[in-house]
Amino acid sequence: MSGRGWPALLAMLVLTVAEGGLGRSAAAQSLVADISDHLVAVTTDFAGTELLLFGAVERPGRVVVVVRGPLQTLVVRRKERVLGVWINRLATTFVDVPAFYAIASSAPLAEVASASELARQEFGLRYLRLNPASGAQSDPDGGFRAALVRVKQREGLYSEGLEQVSFLGERLFRARIPLPANVPTGSYVATVFLLVDGEVVAAQTSPLVVSKLGTGARIARVAEHDAAIYGLFAILLALSAGWLGSIAFRQG
């Protein structure tokens, strides 16, 4: 953020503290944080956006920002070559998988906390808990888990360290988390952690909703709740397009 951007950020932080009714008690808190938008509207021309998280700390420390959600169940398949043909032979199902996960920190994670603390807080893709469903194919070598993470990273839905937390002085901080155009709709959680001497001493969570609006949202609702009507409309639309194309072809 440029120098001109920090005054605006400071003003937003002051408003957040005032609206939260913190007043003079804010000085006694270790951490005050918020996000710029609690609702991200996905319209037909949505091309992605950036989520701004900002705040202030009462004492020096390291800040970690995590944005995650919504939860989903995913099936990961492994291909094997059989008689010269690649086919799906093995598969496992993961439950409660965050559809989106992004983390930023004011220092490299290895310097923020010990490996045990990173694992306990799920800081970083290495420590993100991805649990196979009960009765699903086991994943002893972590191959299915690694494949899931690779796919999510390739889609731009899992990231770590792309945007670091930056400070203005020792108190004010901000971080930008990119949300790609294919970000799933649903409920998210943005959490800001303050760590001192490798331990979490304060955390603040803010809700975030990514929701479809406009014509795209209405079409999605029809497709979900009235599948028969949506299918009939799609068939009629395809027939109309074919008919109009044949007329244009004959006239040409």
Task: Itemize the secondary structure elements and their pairings.
Blueprint: H1 5-19, E1 31-35, E2 39-42, E3 49-57, E4 62-82, E5 85-105, H2 109-112, H3 115-121, E6 131-132, H4 143-154, E7 158-160, E8 166-168, E9 172-179, E10 186-196, E11 199-212, H5 215-225, H6 227-251
Parallel strand pairs: 2-11, 5-7
Antiparallel strand pairs: 1-3, 3-9, 4-5, 4-10, 5-6, 8-9, 10-11
Would you write up a description of this structure?
With 252 residues, the protein is of the alpha+beta class. The chain folds into 2 domains: 5-213, Macroglobulin (MG2) domain (Immunoglobulin-like); 214-252. Helices cover 29% and strands 40% of the residues. It is built from 6 helices and 11 strands. The strands form 2 sheets. Strands 2, 4, 5, 6, 7, 10 and 11 form a 7-stranded mixed sheet that branches. A 4-stranded antiparallel sheet has the order 1-3-9-8, with helices on one face. β4 and β5 form a beta hairpin. The model is unreliable at 17-28 (pLDDT under 50).
Radius of gyration: 23 Å
SSE-based structural type: alpha+beta
Q: State the helix count.
A: 6
Q: Can you name the CATH architecture of the largest domain?
A: Sandwich
Overall pLDDT confidence:
80
- State the share of residues found in helices, binned by percent: 25-40%
- Pattern of helices and strands: HEEEEEHHEHEEEEEHH
Tell me the count of domains: 2
- So what's the CATH class of the largest domain? Mainly Beta
Quaternary state of the chains:
single chain
Low-confidence stretches: 17-28
Shape: globular
Looking at CATH, which topology of the largest domain would you report?
Answer: Immunoglobulin-like
Major beta-sheet overview: 7 strands, mixed
Q: Compute the number of strand runs.
A: 11
- Beta-strand fraction estimate: 35-45%
Name of the CATH superfamily of the largest domain: Macroglobulin (MG2) domain
Note the gap between the termini.
55 Å
